Each structure stands twice: as structure tokens, then as C-alpha cells.
């Protein structure tokens, strides 16, 4: 009999068989379990998660809170689902074609709806749950991220408990969903919740009832676009004032008239204040910061505007957090940037301050058009429409930047280094680094409008043709053609043709949350 070589054992198939047996054994254990109180809850939770309804409802609720971190978390979680769901349902299930479990051991009370007929591996519900929970965890504070993660885990377990999936299906889905959530950082980096400020032992003397605190309120600030529908949006100045009056009854509240002189109103308030407070947007906070510097008093920022970039950089996203920061009495010192006429004779009184960004070029036209449109269509649609219209039609400005002639289409000067890209950089890692963040789009004879507009709106300003950026302690800009139009913290004004940007490092004392 001729000798024949035996085929080598297939260790991979043996491993898969063992994993399959372990998977079925784990399913049987869950199917035989009786978890009192969950026989009714888990099937309904699983059903509510069909087609992502649970997660998109959660995202909607988070968006309606008006808090920037929660809106970002909701958007990131939704994007992650949009990636994970087709990866599982279109690619994964068709590639593996695993049959659903036999549900003989599962009590009928758990199987209240028709079992799914699609393939089992991987679990789509689990992938969506993990994707949303991971996206939320990258942006939201722990009190929000933990309940969302617990709900996602409950949905994943419910898929086994109701007989819809083997545990292996669920684990694979969770892995795919988590990767999709983490993968969103490749195209949209997660921002730090709070900008850092150097550690300091400086504290303010505060009274529990708010005595010595003078709060100036710009009632014209705030999100717009909902008034016509009779919607009272969260974070509006009047909501913040009501909370301040209840929690700090001895504080003085000054309401500004629509045509009030901001600088004069804040100077008068700062003269008699131990602490100067401000309720309003970034432009109002800018005026308050100037008065606080001139009179040497600490500043308490209370969000009440459209974007509230500076307050959110401090970690203050609501009036409740502002009150807690005031009572904590912890101060930090942040940089203040300024722009002043260049050349001899320019003094401190001629400085125009900014806490976030100063912009020139097409951005000033963008701000004007955005403010015109946002009362009708809301701030974010208005920003997108204004960006497209302005950047398609605007022409570069002939400038001399540090003595070099340039045709500048778009330019930003940031107070401290910004980590974000896009049409309006919004977050920083620090508020006291002593530097200016300069970003410009410099053009030749032809402006690459379509590509540039797409790159700016997508948040990838660095891939825009002609893009330049650098960090500096000062910057001189000259407009040979006349006055320079400049937007400081969203407020547009005209300045002399020659200006210089600079910094006052650590000049402004601000209240910071206990965790900041």
C-alpha cells in the first residue's frame, strides 16, 4: 500500500469551533437567566433602539440643551452611527452570513416582537450603541457620558437577553462601533473641554449673597432665529438674569438699553464693583474685559450670547456654572490681545482689545452678512450661507504684513494658539501662552475660490491654496488703500490704515470653575 502524507491539522478551524461552542454556551446561560424586573425593560429598550431611534432621540435632546459640548457630542455620536451602521449591515452581515440563535430557551415574555430575519454577525444594534456612546464620551462631561455608556451596554446585553444575537455578535458590533466613534477624530479632532490657565493661588473675596458684584446685562445678546416662532431658547440673557437674581440676591444687576454705550456702561459699573460680571456674547465680554483691566477688578463671565467662545474656553457654559465659579472664588489670569495704531504716539488708551480673534479681509463681509441672515434662518445656516456667498464674491485686500506686500483674502489673528481649523477657529489649549496665532490665505492673481470655500467649510483651512500660519508676539499690518476693516470678537469696526497687534500677557483676572 503506497504511503500517503496526512494533511496538517487546521488549527484555525479548530479554534473557530471552540469559539463557536463557547459562544453558544454563553448564549444558553443568558437565555436561562431570570433577571427580575428586566423581563419587561430590556425587550422594550432593545425595540426602542431599532433604526437608531433611541440614539437620535438622545442626540436631539442633547442639542436642545443649548450647551456647546453636548451639541458637539450629539453630532459626533450621530456621525459615528452613520459610519458604523453601513459597515455592519452592508459589509459585515453579508460577509459572514451567520444564522440567528435558536430561541427555544428564551422565555416568550422576552420575545414580544417579530425576531429579525437578517444575518446575525455582527450586531447592528450593538455597533450603533457603541458608536454613539464613544462619540459622546469624546466630547461630553462625565455626568452625561456615563449614563449614555450604561444605556449602550444595556442595549447590547438586551440583544442577547431577547434571543436576537449570540454574545460574539454583540462583542463584534461593540468593537466596530467603538472604532467608528474613535475614527471620527481623524476628520474632526476632539477639542479639550477647557483651556488651561497657569496655576495660581490668587483668590477673590466674594459674598455668598453676591454683595459687591455688579453684573451688566446685554439683553440684545443671545441666539436668534426662534423669536418668530415664539421659542424661548436656553441660555438667553433673561434666563441667566433670573438665576442670578435668585442665587445672588445682593448683586446689582444693570440692564443695558439697546443703544447704550458699552464702554461707558462698563466703566461706570466697574468703578463701584468689587467684581464685575457680564451677561452677553463675546463682543459684550470684550467691552467688559476692557473695563475690568482699567479698574483692576476681576471679571465674571456669564454665557448669554450667540457663540460665547471666551466663556466656554474658561469652562463656563451656563449661568449655574458661572455662579459656582463666583462662589468658589478661584481666579486665573489670561492673556488679552490688542490692536492699536502703528507708529509713534500710540498709547494704551487707543488699544482695541480682543479675547478670541481679530479678522480682516473677506471675514468682515462674512460677519456682516451672517448677522443679517441669522435672524431669519438661524446662526449656523446663516454662517454657511454667508461663507459661501462672501468667499465666492470677495476680492483680496492689498496689504503690507510686517513690511511684505501681500494680497490677503482671509486673515485671523488669534489671542493664544488655536487648535481648531476652519472659517472661525473656536478653541484653544491655553489662555496664557503669550502668543498670537496668525493665519492667512494669500493669493496670486487668481483666487482658487471653489477649492478654498470647500476646505474652509469642511474645517481644513490648512489645505487651502495660499494658506500660511505662524506664531508671534506682535504683528504690523498696513493697508495702503485706506482704512482697515477689522472684526474683533465678532464686532466689525474701521481702524487707521496702519495698525499693530500685540499682547498683554496674563493681564486679566477671571473667575474659573473649580475643575479648571
TrEMBL record:
Keywords: Cell membrane, Hydrolase, Membrane, Transmembrane, Transmembrane helix. Residues 208-343 form the DAGKc domain. It is found in: Cell membrane. Gene3D superfamilies: 2.60.200.40, Phosphatidic acid phosphatase type 2/haloperoxidase (1.20.144.10), Probable inorganic polyphosphate/atp-NAD kinase, domain 1 (3.40.50.10330). Its main location: membrane. Transmembrane segments: none annotated. It comes from the Bacteria. It is a multi-pass membrane protein. This is Phosphatase PAP2 family protein. It comes from Actinomadura monticuli. The lineage of its organism: Bacteria, Bacillati, Actinomycetota, Actinomycetes, Streptosporangiales.
Amino acid at each position: 500500500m503506497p504511503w500517503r502524507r496526512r494533511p496538517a491539522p487546521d488549527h484555525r478551524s479548530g479554534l473557530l469551533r471552540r469559539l463557536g461552542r463557547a459562544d453558544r454556551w454563553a448564549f444558553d446561560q443568558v437565555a436561562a437567566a431570570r433577571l427580575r424586573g428586566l423581563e419587561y425593560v430590556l425587550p422594550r429598550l432593545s425595540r426602542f433602539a431599532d433604526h437608531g431611534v433611541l440614539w437620535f432621540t438622545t442626540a436631539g435632546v442633547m442639542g436642545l440643551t443649548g450647551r456647546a459640548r453636548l451639541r458637539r457630542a450629539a453630532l459626533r455620536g450621530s456621525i459615528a452611527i452613520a459610519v458604523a451602521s453601513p459597515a455592519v449591515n452592508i459589509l459585515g452581515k453579508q460577509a459572514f452570513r451567520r444564522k440567528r440563535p435558536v430561541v427555544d430557551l428564551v422565555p416568550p415574555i422576552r420575545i414580544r416582537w417579530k425576531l429579525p430575519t437578517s444575518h446575525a454577525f455582527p450586531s447592528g444594534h450593538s455597533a450603533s450603541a457603541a458608536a454613539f456612546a464613544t462619540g459622546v464620551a469624546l466630547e461630553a462631561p462625565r455626568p452625561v457620558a456615563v449614563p449614555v455608556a450604561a444605556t449602550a451596554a444595556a442595549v447590547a446585553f438586551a440583544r442577547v437577553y431577547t434571543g436576537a444575537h449570540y454574545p460574539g455578535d454583540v462583542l463584534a458590533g461593540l468593537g466596530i462601533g467603538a472604532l467608528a466613534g474613535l475614527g471620527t477624530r481623524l476628520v474632526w479632532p476632539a477639542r479639550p473641554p477647557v483651556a488651561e490657565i497657569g496655576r495660581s493661588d490668587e483668590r477673590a473675596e466674594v459674598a455668598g449673597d453676591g454683595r459687591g458684584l455688579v453684573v451688566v446685562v446685554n439683553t440684545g445678546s443671545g441666539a436668534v432665529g426662534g423669536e418668530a416662532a415664539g421659542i424661548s431658547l436656553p441660555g438667553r440673557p433673561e434666563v441667566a438674569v433670573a438665576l442670578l437674581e435668585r442665587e445672588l440676591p445682593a448683586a446689582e444687576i444693570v440692564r443695558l438699553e439697546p443703544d447704550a454705550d458699552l464702554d461707558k456702561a462698563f466703566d461706570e459699573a466697574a468703578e463701584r464693583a468689587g467684581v464685575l460680571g457680564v451677561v452677553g456674547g463675546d463682543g459684550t465680554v470684550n467691552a467688559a474685559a476692557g473695563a475690568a483691566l482699567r479698574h483692576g477688578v476681576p471679571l465674571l463671565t456669564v454665557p448669554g450670547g450667540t457663540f460665547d467662545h471666551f466663556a466656554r474656553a474658561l469652562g463656563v457654559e451656563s449661568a449655574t456654572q458661572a455662579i459656582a465659579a463666583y462662589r468658589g472664588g478661584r481666579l486665573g489670569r489670561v492673556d488679552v490681545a490688542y490692536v492699536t495704531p502703528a507708529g509713534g504716539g500710540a498709547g494704551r488708551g487707543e488699544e482695541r482689545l480682543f479675547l478670541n480673534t481679530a479678522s480682516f479681509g473677506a471675514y468682515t463681509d462674512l460677519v456682516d452678512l451672517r448677522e443679517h441672515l441669522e435672524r431669519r434662518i438661524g446662526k449656523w445656516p446663516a454662517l454657511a450661507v454667508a461663507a459661501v456667498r462672501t468667499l465666492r464674491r470677495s476680492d483680496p485686500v492689498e496689504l503690507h504684513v510686517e513690511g511684505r506686500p501681500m494680497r490677503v483674502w482671509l486673515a485671523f489673528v488669534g489671542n493664544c494658539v488655536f487648535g481648531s481649523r476652519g472659517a472661525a477657529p473656536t478653541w484653544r489649549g491655553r489662555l496664557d501662552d503669550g502668543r498670537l496665532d496668525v493665519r492667512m490665505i494669500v493669493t496670486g492673481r487668481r483666487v482658487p475660490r471653489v477649492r478654498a470655500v470647500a476646505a474652509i467649510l469642511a474645517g481644513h483651512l490648512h489645505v487651502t491654496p495660499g494658506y500660511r500660519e505662524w506664531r508671534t508676539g506682535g504683528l504690523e499690518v498696513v493697508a495702503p488703500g485706506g482704512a482697515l476693516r477689522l472684526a474683533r470678537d465678532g464686532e466689525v469696526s474701521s481702524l487707521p490704515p496702519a495698525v499693530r497687534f500685540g499682547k498683554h500677557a496674563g493681564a486679566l483676572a477671571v473667575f474659573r470653575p473649580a475643575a479648571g
